[in-house]
Structures
1.
Amino acid sequence: MLIKLRQSSECNEADVTPESIYLSRRTFMSTAAAVMALSSVPVWAQSATGERYAEVEPGKAPSWLAERIAATKWNAVTVKGEALTPFQDATHYNNFYEFGADKSDPAANAGSLKTEPWSVVIDGEVGKPGRYALEDFLKPYQLEERIYRLRCVEAWSMVIPWIGFPIAALLNKVGPTSAAKYIRFETLKDPQSMPGQRSNFGLIDWPYVEGLRLDEAMHPLAILAVGMYGRELPNQNGAPLRLVVPWKYGFKSIKSIVRISLVSEQPQTTWQSIAAQEYGFYANVNPTVDHPRWSQARERRLPSGLFSPNVRETQMFNGYADEVANLYSDLDLRKNY
Ligand code: MTE
């Protein structure tokens, strides 16, 4: 994010009026109880993966994951009237600094990441700590397709069909103690398979770390994803397990998670450590609070090019204000950017 920035002000054509998002209102009561309601959301469109995303490169998921994905509740949450970003763009224009600093580096280099077997540690202020094989970790949860906007702090955006489950479901299972106020996520640290961790991109103190307030993590829109476009996550998109928090800038959505900790203090996150005045803990998408070096009022929706920049207005909380604004009613969003 500190490099190769294309400023939104470089784009000169606001050619799209943002279309309103349709989210089932039933689905989004912002209480933990709503998570239970989510599981009863009707399946609007059931179809086999192949029919749904015929253009998408087939995955190589282990059989247990392929079976889980085939049983996904398709289209559980969607975005109305906005085209999905083509798979090719979503998988070849990435930020994953563990594999290099250019947008094309993750697709080129992330093949070295070994995602099977994979385990996740749950620790800290939690009733049921432990290390879980990913297969066991996922067992209790119904996978759902969630079609969300993704807005990067660099002022580009996409619409991606994720497959995952609400973090709230995990938290309800593992039981945070009363001391737990935040949730901290950590990416794999493995310089052998992650060339960016052994290169001279010395700004980052590995592993990549992110965090949420506990009530943010409990929100039904916040998910842990294991797939996208009807298949498992490609490595460059954060296989085998990543966070997706659609109302926050993309850097919050940490990839290739190996550790989830319940903690009492606000965790120090990677981008805060690098430039706290530019990247705050909250990182809520907010068109009225500019980045110190560029405007956040507009965004380039990928695919975008010189002759069709595909620029649109950025929406408060990335279009999810009705669902999440109440989380921040007591917060000055200028100070807590
Ligand atoms: N997670 C890790 N571990 N390392 C990273 O460099 N980049 C973040 C986020 N998660 C990043 C990460 C940023 S800046 C963005 S915008 C999104 O991942 C990009 O997700 P995508 O490549 O799937 O679009």
2.
Amino acid sequence: MFDNVFVVEHPLVQHKLTYLRDKNTSSANFRRLVTEISTLMCYEATRDLPLTETEIETPITSMKAKIIAGRKLAFVPVLRAGLGMCEGVLSLIPAAKVGHIGLQRDHETFEPMSYYCKLPPDISERDVIVLDPMLATGGSAVFAVDTIKKHNPKSIKFMCIIASPEGIARLSSTHSDVKIFCASVDERLNEKAYIVPGLGDAGDRIFGTD
Ligand code: PRP
Ligand code: URA
């Protein structure tokens, strides 16, 4: 295993992931579960944010209390499926900026085709967390990180829900500085480059287009 990979083993995440995988879960419940898992994973992915102290007054006395040290964040969901993770992470960090990268995998080559990119203009001052529920071949993740790195962000993390061993190997070998947060590393890819056992097509399940 690569030392840049962090599997969020928290029981709440693992419990919710089971219902997310279940093919009988409705789109409405799937969206809710993606939001909840993303919120819990964001808690882990931001564990290293540095703290500083500020002077406040409680109703009892004055004290020095901890606050996050002026760190600026940006979330970059990979369209479409990454959009499903936005609500959860923004509920924890509402001041973050949000960029968008639109990618669609080619059905035969499985390589991503880019159709949209809009990033915050001050992204060079920000720590970036890329959001995409599925890390399969890793083509989309590598393309997204390549694109963001051209704008010199302070750092990049990649947050997904399910990763394949192949996707982790490709993203880690291309961008060893990018920490990968996931809820599961599954067995393998199938002949259509879907993750096994996985959860199917994340975008279709979020948006009800299957
Ligand atoms: C899915 C998923 C990732 C990509 C992962 O998106 O959300 O972006 O596939 O596959 P990879 O690691 O092999 O590149 P898809 O291209 O199906 O688009 P969608 O989100 O619009 O459904
Ligand atoms: N994209 C998905 O949505 N699911 C997979 O299993 C692989 C790529």
